[in-house]
Amino acid sequence: MADESSPGKARLIADIMGAQKRLQDLIAEDRADPLFSSHLTLSQLKILMLLARHGSVSGSELAGMLGIGAATLTGMIDRLVVQDLVARAEDPHDRRVRRIALTRAGRDLIGSIFNAGEARMRTLLSRLSAEELDLIAQATTLIIKAAESSEA
Amino acid sequence: MADESSPGKARLIADIMGAQKRLQDLIAEDRADPLFSSHLTLSQLKILMLLARHGSVSGSELAGMLGIGAATLTGMIDRLVVQDLVARAEDPHDRRVRRIALTRAGRDLIGSIFNAGEARMRTLLSRLSAEELDLIAQATTLIIKAAESSEA
DNA sequence: ACTGATAGTTTGCCTGACGCGAACAAATGG
DNA sequence: CCATTTGTTCGCGTCAGGCAAACTATCAGT
């Protein structure tokens, strides 16, 4: 399909992707635990993710992102408020709008799902030597730089 | 809290974890897309994940894993069969049991959610040089070895 | 000050996914 | 031949989401 440059690169990339996939499978179990024990709905999770990304949004904005009506959103937010995952606050510039944002518990929950496997990875790294960690740190730095240059 | 060995290790680990978290945030968007557009329920996702892990299981086994009754499971599997995500097959050893397994489409869906960001990572790696890729390949090999030794 | 538009809530109503127990058919294994 | 196990069907209930319509409060323009 594609070996534009050197032939060794394709093999290296394949090796790296295989390893990455194995790591994903490992932390998938950690991710599933808080997700399934939270008794959240996928729609509710979507709301929490949107709030985690955008911070504080108005109801109409959120309804627009979700593609649902304002009436439906009211009920969904109500249920999340009862669970203390989001909170409504008055907008200082417009007293009609009620800004919706994550509570501390909501942020923690989303964090525990998204950054799953953090504990596992940490104990895993702690078993390696300083030299090995240095190598890994260089590698991650390379990846992050490449990611940032492509996002910009 | 913990700096048992050399002080440099703690800093290296912190750097690596920070980079890892940034990468997780990036592929989170890729993961959310197939998840939310699939119109799955969290319970349905749980079933698909269990089937992906265990391969083919009987109804009673699956109901036991989920903590629900057999009657409930029948309906849930029915809905997944309609979506062509799982299929029922006869067990050659016991004609009472109908073994439940993922279909090709079900495997693809789970794969697209679990191995999210694969395409993004691949194009990202393709921009790096062979030397940089070699470094990353060494790093991932180290991590995988550490993970395997801890799992064993 | 009036008036039209906008934000959010409430109400009533519907659909679909899950959950159960009970009853049942089919197959197993004594 | 009979108790057990597996899975399905049936009837029933609950809850999350979805809408339209009516309503209140507020804003913004004239």
Spatial arrangement of strands, main beta sheet of chain A: 1-2
Order of helices and strands of chain A: HHHHEEHHH
Q: Assign the CATH architecture of the domain at 42-111 in chain A.
A: Orthogonal Bundle
Fourth CATH level, the homologous superfamily of the domain at 42-111 in chain A: Winged helix-like DNA-binding domain superfamily/Winged helix DNA-binding domain
Given helix and strand content, the structural type of chain A is mainly alpha
Please identify the oligomeric state: homodimer
Count, helices of chain A: 7
CATH level 1 class label of the domain at 42-111 in chain A:
Mainly Alpha
Average pLDDT score of chain A: 92
The largest sheet of chain A, given as strand count, sense and whether it forms a barrel, is: 2 strands, antiparallel
* Biggest interface pair, counts: A-B, 56 and 58 residues
Alpha-carbon distance between the termini of chain A? 28 Å
Radius of gyration of chain A: 21 Å
Q: What is the strand content of chain A?
A: 5-15%
Strand element count of chain A:
2
Helix content of chain A: over 70%
Name the shape of chain A in a single word. elongated
- Write down the CATH topology of the domain at 42-111 in chain A: Arc Repressor Mutant, subunit A
Which stretches of chain A are poorly predicted, pLDDT < 50 over at least 5 residues?
none
